[in-house]
Specification:
By secondary structure, this protein is an alpha/beta fold. The chain contains 19 helices and 12 strands. Strand 5 and strand 6 form a beta hairpin.
Amino acid sequence: MTRWFNTGGPCLAREHYMIPPERRAREALALLEQGRWFSLVSGRQTGKTTVLQSLARTVTRAGSARAFWVDLESARAEPELASAMRTILDCLADALRHEGAASLAPEAVQVNEWLSTPATALEHYVSAVCAASDRPVVLLLDEADVITGRGMVSFLTQLRALYLARERRPAPHCVVLSGVRAVRDYVVDDMRGHVAWLGTASPFNVTVENVGLAAFTEAEVAELCAQHTAETTQRFEADALARVYALSRGHPWLVNALCDQCTRRDVPDRTVAVTATHVEAAKETLILERRTHIDSLVARLREERVRRVLDPMIAGSSPPDDLLDDDVAYVVGLGLIRLEGGVWQPSNAIYREVIPRALTYMKQTSLPQKTAWCVGADGLLDAPKLMAGWQTFWRKDGHLAAEGFFYKESGPHLMLMAFLQRIVNGGGRVEREYALGKGALDLLLLWRVGEAEQRVAIEVKLRRATETEDEAVAQVEGYLDTLGMREGWLVIFDLRSTTPWSERIFTREHTAAGFTVRVVGC
């Protein structure tokens, strides 16, 4: 049976193309062997469950310990202490049965007695399992961050009690908490007072940072696709492999989703090689169809802690003074941003595009603008006409619509992106570059003209007293130089309420050093 690119649930070697999971979790395996208690934190659908199940098999087969993968997903809707503890113990019992170790589970009568005092039930149960085992016990607790309220407080407190008393009573050799959030984010703000050790040297902060999972390297993307070629003879061209990695930065779900879209839906003929053009089309489909992973990402954008980080990032402004390190760490843990060159930016090209498109979707679909009015007889976008149309729209409706965005600081930028996305839909695309504290939002409109591509470079600024127009123009010239272009646009938003529209709306041209920059006032 031919395997396939997996986009749902854990990977199975008999069904899916796979990169060996152990390769992505070397640090976790080393800590586990040392008996450390730690957290494995990674964004959604990055392969945590696949890795944990693989670690459990590896450890158990080595014979030095018994490792159990425990899925806590069913405890998600159990905020009350008693019901949460009963569900957690049921999850532990299921894990023991699955591994053929049901004999280690305590008797039901004993379990019910412990559950009469749920604040210590987990301690008693786990200690009893460890006492009954002929080898050290390793617990790999998957989806550990789904428990809520008092149930979560007690869950963490009892695990810590086991850790501190492991010299006096049977306790696990190692406990791993796995989820998309760091332990310090497990408990909501109004419950933090009940878990005083959160954020301190807890048993789950044994390393300087939470252990993460390595993304696929570019070579591993090629290795994964080579498995498909070996089984079907369908090749991925070199430019296709490069594009998959460039768009995904090795995020496992994105890699598999792009390849699955290409091979299963877009290029089902195995005699036809997959090209970069196919991959680009697949990316657009994933975004427009809002696949499960993309949909869950969009839901995160509505969280206040996420907004506090992404809003200034899109606006190209400096981080606010009250932005907490924990907020940044939380968004990093979700897999939304990464640090590169000392600058925080979206984790990959797909997220870079999804974030503003998701935030502007309703505005974009309600815009009346069509493409035809700004396309010349030669098929090229008429950039001056496009920008003049944008100014008219901004003055009439856009500035008011921008005020309705949940992302207030980046509202003008998002409105411009919605306008441009609406214009190029179906005939081109908008590439975006933005980062926290970068100082500008760079946009590149790519418009298809036959077999060629027209490029229109745009940089966006908010008018600030600390920066002159000449300085902004110099930045655009640097942007153009990087792109190998000679002409570009600078859009400046003047949001001062005292400035009349007659002064805000203007167009002027700067020419120097072989560059032409047209400045558009809004």
